[in-house]
Amino acid sequence: MKATKNIIFYSLLVAGLVVAVGCGKKADENKPISQVKAEAEQMNTDQLRAAAMDYKKAIVAKEGDVEKLAAQLKEIPVAEMLGEEAKGVKADMEKLQQSVSALQERFQIYYDTLKEKGGDVSGL
Question: Whole-model pTM?
Fold first, then answer.
């Protein structure tokens, strides 16, 4: 029964990540920083704002997934915190947090460049 719940949970988590990445079509956490900087310099303010919004959407979606995993972790009894289930949840949370950090770093480049070029940064 517990294994079935885990399978369902992880399936939903993967589906959520696919949707989150799909929402941020241009939000690529693996794109080299040097490439992001070079592209940002060539963009106009409308393009910069659109790119920043893509990253913002992807960040918000992934932060929601991190919160769900944190809630799941809180439900695991203290006696089982060193068990496989807790280790799996912690590993998934760490991966998501690294992903969010990578997205935030790239978002900041677009945001800063947009600000430098005098673009509208409200709502970002």
Answer: 0.70
